[in-house]
Amino acid sequence: MDLLTRIQAVPGPSGDEGRIADFLESHCGGIPGTTLRRIGDLVIATRGRPRVAVFAHVDTIGFTLAYKRTLAPIGGPRVDGGERIREVGSERTATIQLRNDPPGAWRLSVKGAEPGGRWVFAEPLKIKKDQVSGPYLDNRAGVWNAVRVLERVEDVAVLFTPGEEHSGRGALVGARLIHEELGISRALISDITWHTGSIKNGKGPAVSLRDRYVPRQAFLDEVLSAAEKSGVPFQREVESAGGSDGSYIERSTFPIDWVFVGAPQKRSHTPKEACCVADLHAMVDLYAHLIPALSRTA
Length: 298
Fold this sequence. Notes:
Strand content: 25-35%
CATH topology of the largest domain: Aminopeptidase
Number of strands: 19
Structural class: alpha/beta
Radius of gyration: 19 Å
Strand order of the largest sheet: 1-2-12-3-13-17-15-16
CATH class of the largest domain: Alpha Beta
Order of helices and strands: HHEEEEEEEEEEEHEHEEEHEHEEEH
Helix content: 25-40%
Largest sheet: 8 strands, mixed
CATH architecture of the largest domain: 3-Layer(aba) Sandwich
Number of domains: 2
Shape: globular
């Protein structure tokens, strides 16, 4: 979990992913046989002759400081009041105060910060027994998985995408590049999903049969068949809401099939997100089996 801790510590709210892109470019450049390409804050790492791509978004939720110390959300943070936050690019910290004017508004607890600054949750990761908790496991755990997959799989393309929480520009640009330049038409979405009444922490990663969008059934069936043969415990998820980089691939003009495969977490988009360590390791094992299997039939 040391690598996950280091990845989580690098701030990267949507629109300000340069620091995490720098980190990943440096780290992945040390993986043998890896070729890197960077476009803005999109990092594409390839090994061998990839037929399957992994998309992992590097941006997180956060806050923009607006006027009169009010906080404008980046993405969809969940706030109760009293959360510790830190300013990106400085040592300044504060807490979030709830306001009644207007009702439900959020305000910075300290004065003197300039409007326009980016703020993120300040809590570090905590690991206790088989649980890791803290902010930004969505999607720092998905990024960690993608790095581990890049280390283990000889033929793969990994796209570390910016902007998933807002515009999806990273997935849209990346889909075009891998389809036009590498001929890739298959993708797995390395992201973190919800702990619910049906999908539980500790029961393995989830293969999403659908969320707001519906992947192509023939490809989904192939992913499920390969997952069953892997011997890795996994769950089948069915939702009618939510989305991921797969949503943007679906709306692009490029014929890339996609399926979301990710570990569940509790308390999404809060400073107290929680995943089971065993689920995260099983996620890596499942990807390491799926990618060669799906490559053979691509």
